[in-house]
Amino acid sequence: MCIRDRYNLTASPAQCQTDLKPLQDHIRFHDSISRTHPNVHILQMTPQLLALHTKIRDGQCTRDDFVFYSNRIMRLLVEESLAMLPFSPVQITTPTGSPFDGYMFKSLLCGVSIVRAGESMEQALRDVIKGVRIGKILIQRQEDTEEKAAQLYYSKLPNDIKDRQVMLLDPMLASGGSAICAVKVLIDAGCPEEQITFVNLVSCPEGLANLAKAYPKIKIVTSFVDPILNKDKWIIPGLGDFGDRFYGTEEDQHGRRVPSMGSAKPL
Fold it and tell me: Is 241 one of the catalytic residues?
């Protein structure tokens, strides 16, 4: 099925070509990333997902809207990540007394958030996994250094983490330093590399390459790959400082809503 038919577009072919260009451009770029990194799973690009990203990336987006639309993307990410975990066949009996063949999770699950921005993703996990255990890892980039090296400050993990599938939560993957540091903490705690799924909203090729090279057995699930990591280690076009915008602490160019930042414009 062609992309025009898939999304039931009724405009003229010429207009559809214009309307679909942003979608097609992102799909082509994401496909190239997936071919390069087989362990990277990118959410299927749809007009809805692109619209959600357009909302949260807009410099004029209010905090309420940023939180609301970010939460929608995070829920999609968590559901997609859960679908990639191992399952075991099981047969149950329905209220009609009939057998039903299905699946159940093969092993226990826990979430681990990279403080602070990663904590924003915890609710999406709690919404779909009742009573899920959640660990914390505090890592900060050394912003006063050129390398922006990641430094571990604190971690608190479930005692039986080695027996669990782990969803490592962090919305932004720039250079990959924080994620690599967090995975090392999990492995040092006894968690096998192949039991870790890194769940992420926005990434970039450099971060994906660095994380995949350091830990080739982990799974990476992201909703969007941006093309550029600039000299200051910011993702471009990006969306600013996710934690500041989500928690309402922005006070610099990453989140201040001023006319010069612009808003949505027709392409």
Answer: yes
